[in-house]
């Protein structure tokens, strides 16, 4: 994806409201995979509203540093058909 925290935030700002799949490090060799919509971006964190049928809670937040260090990997989809628009790794 991007090289700096500012670049990551700007890239996420352009994708507000888009569907995404995220893979996050859950600790102890666990990887958590969730899907939802990028809801909001703030100066230090971004919020993802999760699909309710798959998850026990509504929203999760991650910092831009999580994306920079690849603790969280984001894959955006262009539309409901599932066409890949942007992959962040």
Automatic annotation (TrEMBL):
This is ABC transporter permease. Gene3D superfamilies: 2.30.30.100. Pfam families: VEG (PF06257). NCBIfam families: BflmStimVeg (NF046033). It comes from the Bacteria. One of its GO terms (biological process) is regulation of DNA-templated transcription.
């Amino acid at each position: 994806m991007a090289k700096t925290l500012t670049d990551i935030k700007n890239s996420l700002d352009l994708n507000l409201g888009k569907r995404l799949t995220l893979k996050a490090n859950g600790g102890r060799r666990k990887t958590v995979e969730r899907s939802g919509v990028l809801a909001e971006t703030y100066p230090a964190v971004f919020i993802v509203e999760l699909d309710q049928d798959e998850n026990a809670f509504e929203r999760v937040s991650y910092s831009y540093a999580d994306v920079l260090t690849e603790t969280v990997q984001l894959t955006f989809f262009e539309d409901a058909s599932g066409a890949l628009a942007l992959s962040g790794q």
